[in-house]
Amino acid sequence: MKEFDITIVGLGPAGGTLANLLAMHGFSILILDKEKSFYPLPRAVHFDDEIMRVFQTIGITKDFLKYTIINKGTKFVNSKQKVILDWPRPKKITDNGWYPSYRFHQPDLEKQLRKKLKSYKKVFIEQNANVVKIINSKNNVNIKYLNSINNKIFYIKSKYLVGCDGANSITRTQIKTKMDNLGFTQKWAVVDLILKKNKKNLPDRTIQYSNPKQPATYCRNVGRRRRWEFAIKKNLNDKKVLSENYIWNFLKPWIKKSEAILERKTIYTFKSAIARKWRKGRIFIAGDAAHLMPPFMGQGMCAGIRDASNLAWKIASCLRIKHNEAILNSYQSERSLNVKEYIETTMRMGEFVNAVESIQITKNISSNDQGVKSMQSIKPKLGKGLGQLKDKNRGKIFPQFKLNKYKNFDDYFSKKAVLILSSGIKTKVSKNYSLLEAKSLKNLSIYLKNINSKAILVRPDRFILGSANSGKQISSLIKKNSFILR
Ligand SMILES: Cc1cc2nc3c(=O)[nH]c(=O)nc-3n(C[C@H](O)[C@H](O)[C@H](O)COP(=O)(O)OP(=O)(O)OC[C@H]3O[C@@H](n4cnc5c(N)ncnc54)[C@H](O)[C@@H]3O)c2cc1C
After folding, report:
1. Is the distance from CB of 253 to CB of 201 less than 8 angstroms?
2. Of 72, 187, 332, 424, which one is least surrounded by beta carbons within 10 A?
3. 165 CB less than 6 Å from ligand 1?
């Protein structure tokens, strides 16, 4: 029976990101996907700076950037076309070292993730591989899958398995956990068009039409791609909604049939749900397998990539150092609170688009210079898990500082923990860690001062594990966290 360090079920964006993050450590990885190839049609069209930072770690940004555009933000308008809320995404580099928000075409990302995976000798991708059984044992996971072309059955073993197998996850079923419905279930049509010629009168931003008669969304996507989404009223049947007549009639205020190619029309039931249990022994779930949210904020895939980033270094630590229950348990507790905030904010945004105008999407809303309400993006912290909750810096994302003219923090420290020390502080154990001394970096020194710390320990996923103010505290921080990758 073949054996691997890690098996990943599902090669969508969550599985592709996780596999890349683990492949960087040199582990043997088998990826099983039941489809013949990747899903060629668009779903996700937006991601943010935190996610681009993960792509930077993987090493795909150089090639992938040319398939993205910077997103200018979202406007919410009422039925009289009056702007009732603005969500600007200013073209300004954020603390993560990238622009706040990008637009992309999901198949372009999946191609880049796969291309990078093919450069690793110990990564094996099997398509047409339908996983049917997963059994957890003390030191291994046993997996049974069926090749859907020749109907052959295969059995393999793996030290860990992660199910990134989407909304109808077999892994979730096998670990016998349920999804809790968080309350938003609505049928929407999604229509993707490719313009034949550029059309200047189409908005350059995302527009949410907060109109009780017909809640809808317009997305300015990459190149000539444009998307419209609209809620389906209860009395309409799906066939009618997907008919060419109905769609072009809906699109009339924006565009004529002769001006674009209809690339795709489909109906989704937007859901909000979260799995109760994300782990059983050596088996985990991540991405849509663990949580679902409506797409109003463009954060569903982003959440799956955050899962991958959180889980990858923990599995790597277990494989490199030793199996550690506490570190593996922290995956769900840290991630679920963070994703819940995205789900709940997205649900409120959905209600706002449904024209329940009185609803407050987030607390971060103020009036801008023109008297229009303006919203800021949310930045949820990690839930409790590793590190001390009383440490105010723990669980915050560490900014990506420029270390010199050419390179940023993540270019130097791509998969390891980093101990950052302000000038004048000394510690005996520091030589065991990737070390960065702030003395020659003014911005970093100011940052440490602002967060009242002389030292911080940054995890491989760029979140702060803990902070300290004396040599003794630093030694204790390092001793307590000996599982962290050096
Ligand atoms: C209309 C729409 C718009 C969206 N827009 C955005 C957006 O702008 N931004 C954003 O962040 N998110 C967005 N999302 C959400 C995003 O598309 C999903 O969250 C994301 O694709 C989920 O990725 P995943 O890797 O978890 O799962 P998936 O992409 O669903 O991949 C799961 C994989 O598992 C495989 N698989 C399943 N079962 C098995 C099995 N038994 N054996 C082997 N393989 C299996 C499947 O073949 C598939 O390849 C949108 C979603 C929709 C519907």
Report:
1. no
2. 424
3. yes
